[in-house]
Structures are given as C-alpha cells and as structure tokens.
Amino acid sequence: MRDMGMAVTEENDNDVSIIALKGRLDAGSSKRVLASVKELLKRNRLKIILDMSGVAFIDSTGVGILLTSYRAVDAKGGALKICAIQNQVESIFSMTRLGGFFEIFDDRASAVKDFDDSHP
Amino acid sequence: MGLLVIDPGGEIVTSNDAASRILGYACRMFEGKGWGDLFLEDARNQAFNQVILDVIQEKKVNLHRRVPYVQPGGKTLQLSITGSLLREHEQIAGIVLILHDVTELQRLHDREKRVLREKHRLERERAEGLTRLAMAIAHQIRNPIMSIGGFAMRILSKIDENSLIGAYLKNILSDAGRLEAIVKVVSEYTRITTAKPVQVSISDILETEMVRFQAKAVELSKRVTWSLELSVVDFMVDPVLFRRAIYEVLLNAVEFLKSDEGSVKIFLLKEDNGLLMEIVDNGIGILAKDMPYVFDPFFTTKAVGVGMGLCLVKRIIGEHGGDVRIDSEPGKGAKVIMRLPNQ
Predict the structure, then answer these.
(1) Domain of A37?
(2) Which helix (H) or strand (E) holds B69?
(3) In this structure, is the dihedral angle defined by the CA atoms of residues B215, B219, B224 and B230, taken in order, positive or negative?
(4) Nearest residue of A to residue B55, measured between CA atoms
(5) Domain for residue A17, yes or no?
(6) Beta carbons of B57 and A58 less than 8 Å apart
(7) How many angstroms separate the CA atoms of B15 and B25, rounded?
(8) B263 to each of B230, B258, B335, how far by Cα in Å?
(9) Is residue A1's pLDDT more than 50?
(10) What is the rounded radius of gyration, in angstroms, for the C-alpha atoms of chain A?
(11) Nearest residue, CB atoms, A59 vs list B6, B8, B53
(12) Measured between alpha carbons, how far is residue B62 from residues A111, B16, B58, B82, B190 in Å?
C-alpha cells in the first residue's frame, strides 16, 4: 500500500499537550512526529500525550521514532504517554515491549487525568 | 542455523547458540530478555526489525527476506531470515525466527556478478574494436578496388577480349567484383547499430518473408514445400534487423536444398521467458567438421557468397539479447533455433 501521509495535529489541555496522529507511522511520516515533540520541548511543554487512535500501521522506523521521542522527553524531565492504540498496532506494542517504556492508556481522557492526578 | 522464539509479551523464550553468534551476543544471554529492548533502538537495523514487525502486523507465516544486520560490535552481516507468526485459537502465540548468516555467500555472489560484468564489458569492447577495425578497412579498400576494377575494364575495352591478356583482365575483374561484395557486406555488418525494438507481429514478418522467398525460390529454380506453424505473437524486436536475420536463415535453407527441391518449416512459439523460432530444412545439412565455424565471418561452403550470413544472424539476435544455434545431421537437413528473451 502506498504511504498515504500522516496528519499531525496538536491540542492543549491546560499544561498537557496532545499530539494526535492520523495515518501511517512509517519512514515517510515519523520524522514529523519527532519534530512536533521536539518543538513542544523547546516551548517547555513537558507533559505530552500521543493520541494514536488514527494510526493503523506502524513500521520499524515509526517504532524507532517513538523510542527516540520518549528519550528526548525523558531527558528534559518530562513524560510522554500514549493513548488509544488500535488493535492492529497493539500487537506490535506488546511484542516489542514498547509498553515497558511508555505508559499506555485506553483513551485520551484517562491519559490527561493521569497527568492531572500525578501533578496536583 | 539460528533460532529464536519470541512470546506474545515480546520476551525471547528460546534461542540457540547459533542465533547468539549470528546476532553478536554471548551464548544464552537472550533468554528472558525482550526482543524490543535488545534490537529496536539500533537505527542501523531497521530492515532487520521490519521483518519481525511485518510478521506481527501482517500475520505472516514463512516471511522470507535477506537483510543486512549490524552486530553490537559493529560488524555487518547479510542475514537470510524466515519469520512466522505462531497462532493458537486465533490468538498470537509468538514468533519463530530462523536466521542464516549468508554474508560469505552474498560476497561470493557479488564477486561472481562483478567478474561476469567485467567479462561482458571486455567482450563488448573487443567486439566494438573489431567492428571499428572492419569499418576502417572496408572504407580504405573500397576506393582501390574501384580503381582496379575500373582500369581493368578500360584496358579490356581497348584490346582483343579473347586474347590471353583479355583472360587475365577478366580474372582481375571477377576478383575485384568479389572483393567489392566483401567490402559491401562488411560495411553492412559494421553498420548494425544497437537494436531499437518496437512491438511488432512476428508471425506477420515470418509470413511476409516466406512469401518473398517463394518468389526467390522460383528465381533460383528450386521447388520448395513451405509449412508454417506460427502462434500469433507480438514481440519487441527491431523490425529491420529482425527481417534481415530471418532473410539470411531462409536464404541458407533454400540454397542448401538437395537437388533443387525440398521442404522448409517455420515454427514460432511464445514461451514464458521469450520467443522460440525454428527454421528447419531437409537439405544437405552441415558437416560436423564445419559446425564450429558456421557463425564465423567469411566462412562459407557456397560457390558464390561471402560467408557473412550466419555471422550477421548471430550479431542481430545477440543485439536483441538472444541466442542462436544450429542442429544438423549431414545429409538430412539443418534446424536453426533462435531464442529471444522478453525485453
């Protein structure tokens, strides 16, 4: 299948930034995700959620970029959480143990709530 | 052969010594570790990782790929990997990976390819050099021959044609004519440029050539029974060159018939990887002692003829990437077999 591109949109919920991804997370698109994450860090926004509800395909570059993003956020003392992983991608997460790096939530609300709870 | 089994939680549950050795880790240190923790973060091994991700994502069984792999120590190997998703009651039960180190094999293969390429380059260079030489000689010889022939003719017109000198001059004229024919065919040969193939109907070309030869056979006072067995085939050839090659083969078939009568069969078949053509006659055939030389330039057993016909055929078929060979039983006929690959 052809790379259909990826839409990356950003929203803020108080001090939590949410990056919503829609499309294929692969070699063609994943660099834009990392760029968005780095841009947020530059603005000192350290609580980031990746909303994966629109991602049905991820390749090894995508997985690599998620890990790089995680390390970049972690190095700044921030936290990167992931929410709403689709079934097709979930098996990748479990079999690559990505769950060991990220905190993963069923939906966006519970990820935001987790940030709110940990930092009153 | 290296073997790894990864469970649904991403943990390497089984591995053998070969797997550790191939992947560049100490023996048995895999077990209990996560595949993702060990391999995923190395950006150099994306192709390797992708095999496993594809097995998971596309639920593949026996996914086979050849990928580069960089060991932790920095050494790069070529691996042949086969990955299969294990399933139990519609649930993923794990992944089995079989690894072969094919670095050495790949290296030999690459070397072989390089040697073959070099051999082809040298052959081409040699052929081009010979063609240039032939072109230069043909060009240089043409003018002196014209003047030898021309002056012999003028002298002949001034003396008694039936004198001894007249006989000598006729010999000079006849040999000058022969030399001219050689120069003409050599120039023709050197002018064959790289084939410019277009899609044409091969069956149409063969039929047209056969009709042309029916007339030619009458002219040569030969009685020929023709038979065609043609699949209707459109194929990529250079039509001018291809017609020329067919002409030469048919000319031989007709000229070497026994006692001026016989049969010529033309057979055309489209195969998976290209085109097969056979032109079969029941003429005098080719003697075993002549067979090694039939494609050489200037080799001929005809009383008239320069001996460039089959040489041209070979060159033209070669220009199309194909090959030509001849089977013959002396006294029973010859079969010219031409194969052209798909372009």
Answers:
(1) 6-115
(2) strand B63-70
(3) negative
(4) A92
(5) yes
(6) yes
(7) 11
(8) 16, 10, 12
(9) no
(10) 13
(11) B53
(12) 38, 19, 12, 6, 53
**What burial letters (b/e) apply to B160-172, b meaning 16+ CB within 10 Å?**
eeeeeeeeebeeb
Distance between B342 CA and the closest CA of chain A, angstroms? 28
Q: What is the pLDDT of residues B261-314, one digit of tens each?
A: 899 999 999 888 899 999 999 999 999 999 999 998 888 888 777 788 999 899
Q: Which of B8, B36, B50 sits opposite A98 (nearest CB)?
A: B36
**Interface confidence (ipTM) of the complex:** 0.73
Domains recognised in chain B with CATH numbers: 2-101 (3.30.450.20), 107-191 (1.10.287), 198-341 (3.30.565.10)
Q: Based on the structure, what is the number of domains in chain A?
A: 1
Q: Are B26 and B20 in contact (CB under 8 A)?
A: yes
**Which of B11, B46, B56 has the CB atom closest to A91's CB atom?**
B56
Handedness of CA B37, B38, B40, B44 (dihedral sign): positive
- Is A52 domain-assigned? yes
Give chain B's radius of gyration (CA, Å).
33
**Structure tokens given for A70:** 């995680």
- Alpha-carbon distance values, B50 to A32, A85, B55, B73, B81 (Å): 20, 19, 8, 21, 11
Name the token pair of B150: 């021309």
| Burial of B98 per CB tally in 10 Å (0-12, 13-18, 19+) | middle
Residue A107 — very low, low, confident or very high, per pLDDT cuts 50/70/90?
A: very high
Kindly state whether residue A1 falls inside one of the protein's structural domains.
Answer: no
List, edge to edge, every strand of the sheet that includes B274-281. B223-230, B261-271, B274-281, B333-341, B323-329
End-to-end CA distance of chain A: 45
Probe site for chain A from B4, B57, B59, B63 (most A CB atoms < 10 A): B57
Please answer whether residues B3 and B97 qualify as being in contact, where contact means their C-beta atoms are separated by less than 8 angstroms: yes
pLDDT (tens digit, 9 = 90+) per residue, B24-58?
Answer: 888 777 777 888 878 887 888 888 988 988 888 88
Residues of B in contact with A92 (CB under 8 A): 53, 56-57
φ, ψ (nearest 5 deg) of residue A75: -65, -30
Question: Chain A residue closest to B38 (CA)?
Answer: A96
| CATH code for the domain in which residue A72 is found | 3.30.750.24
Distance from the Cα of A64 to chain B's closest Cα (Å) equals 6
- The Cα–Cα gap between B297 and B277 comes to 23
Provide the 8-state DSSP code for B180. H
